[in-house]
Amino acid sequence: MSEMATSPSALHMQAVALGAAVFLLSCLASAQQPPAPGCLDKCGDINITYPFGVGGAHCFRDKSFQLECNVVVNNSHPRLIMPAYNQQLLSLSPDGEALAALDIQHEAYYYNCNASHPTASASSQPNNMTFATLNKSTVYRFPVSTYRFNATTNSYVVPVALDWAIRDVHNCSAAKLNATNYACRSANSKCSDTTDGAGYRCRCSGGYEGNPYLHAGCQDIDECQRTNEYPCFGNCINMPGGFSCSCPPGTRGNPTIKSGCVKTNQGLTTGSIIGIGVGSGAGLLVMALGAAFLTRNIKNRKARILRQKFFKQNRGHLLEQLVSQNADIAERMIIPLAELEKATNNFDESRELGGGGHGTVYKGILSDLHVVAIKKSKVAVQREIDEFINEVAILSQINHRNVVKLFGCCLETEVPLLVYEFISNGTLYDHLHVEGQPSLPWEYRLRIATETARALAYLHSAVSFPIIHRDIKSHNILLDVSLTTKVSDFGASRCIPAEQNGVTTAIQGTLGYLDPMYYYTGRLTEKSDVFSFGVVLIELLTRKKPYSYRSPQDDSLVAHFTALLTHDNLSDILDPQVKEEGGKEVNEVAVLAVACVKLKADERPTMRQVEMTLETVRSSLLRQELVPSVAAEESKEKHVSWSYPVSEGTSIESSRQYSNDEEYLLSSRYPR
């Protein structure tokens, strides 16, 4: 619209001045204490509420809220003034609203109203008057029905609604960080963010009214005395921040509406009431028993269906095939879940023996009083299930005194359960690496090595098709009360078809014991177990842990042991107990161990050859204790020799077993 009035600047300046004044009202500096007694609380008929105030600095929150009460000559009503702009206020409210008196010239003005240049427009009819926003963070509103004409100034006095707020911080969250300057003093107040710019306002909580900017400014409302606002036609009880409204005794209904409470039926006799109560109680009891019986039946049925599902999921048909081939297996291999739960007290943590690479082991006592170890997988993934079924298939064919005996299995759970004979004396690792006391005697170590070799030789050659353990280590060699060896944990084992000498498969095993050639090629053969067994022999001789040992030259245990044997410095790494108790057979076992860990698989002996060598060494040791001369002669005749390359005919350049590349290949497998 184009400008039509002759002097618009006066109105525009008045509007800008008023906007600036209100903007200052909204911007606060530091906080003051609530007004002290003696501050003016009324100017004419206008109540002055904190944070506004008239008087000294202690009467208002800060300069932004300072007001003056002026008495005008020939006017009986004092005027409440914002002194900074000589602007009259008509009312104040702690709810964030104030009314200001704005003089509008009688002439008609028309201004463009846009966001960048806020203006006012007026006409000769005040009822058509509108007033634009002077500041983005402050709102001004005309109550257009209330205005008066000022004959002296030839202008209309229009009340303008001013929305004020505490604007020294952005919002409530920021304000609450500074408790000293936080404006909402009353304990029964709440803070709300402004919607017209940065800042916040304080309100009394529901059920309270008053001034939230004072410490005790918000007082409880007695809703029971305000029936117009809070209707209650029953028993009304006032409570802090609310009230309770209920129907009188003997009535029921809606007490918040007139005649909403009606009398209840009082015609029943005491006997009738007792009869109804007894009958209802009996009925509820019957219903509860029926529900419990039905729930139990449903639960049992679901459990039975779930067991059947898990049996199929866990490839129970494989076990069924084994059962069909041998009736004796049928009697001992299938163990119900209920039997194992009873044996382990529902797999209580106190029955847990430990966790291996393929599951957790619990101790249990079966109904026939057999003490057993029950193996349960931790992860219900198909690979774990396949390994458990694989272990069942393998161990069901094995009957050897040095291999842990499988009593049976249970496939009625999400993860299969295997039940073994209980070996009570721990593992070879536990006995060998005991702290603070002597370890196993050398004679026992040699016997354990011989029995382990015997078990592996049996697995490789005495069963219908070869079985490769794939995870030989001291942790998987169990010892009973008489220290008899029991090879365990066949979860990673593989069967090799009779017409093949190996299979290509995913890598499984333990760092420090794992065959390097198997690791790099994926080709699994019987010689992979030979390498792992050779590491166990070195562990028996040195009491060093293969997965963590590093030499001063940063070599692995296998590489360091081989180098010391090559340079005839084996005593540098031998266990002092072995050096003290052993004789020349220690060197023979060391030579055998190095032969087992040769890098090329075809240069390693078979487990049968290893068994024969250890049997000869052990027999020689035993006979040497009885008849030293006879034992020495027979040892020469029967010993299976695994001489080390530095013996006769070997040049000094070839005295190391591994080349530099091979040494690096071995060393890279073990953690640094």
From TrEMBL:
The keyword Cytoplasm does not apply. Gene3D superfamilies: Laminin, Phosphorylase Kinase, domain 1, Transferase(Phosphotransferase) domain 1. It is found in: Membrane. ATP binds at K376. The keyword Nucleus does not apply. It is a single-pass type I membrane protein. Residues 648-658 have a biased composition (Polar residues). GO terms for molecular function: ATP binding; calcium ion binding; polysaccharide binding; protein serine/threonine kinase activity. Residues 1-31 form the signal peptide. GO terms for biological process: cell surface receptor signaling pathway. Residues 632-672 are annotated as: Disordered. The chain crosses the membrane at residues 273-294. InterPro entries: EGF, EGF-like_Ca-bd_dom, EGF-type_Asp/Asn_hydroxyl_site, EGF_Ca-bd_CS, Growth_fac_rcpt_cys_sf, Kinase-like_dom_sf, Prot_kinase_dom, Protein_kinase_ATP_BS. This is Os09g0561400 protein.
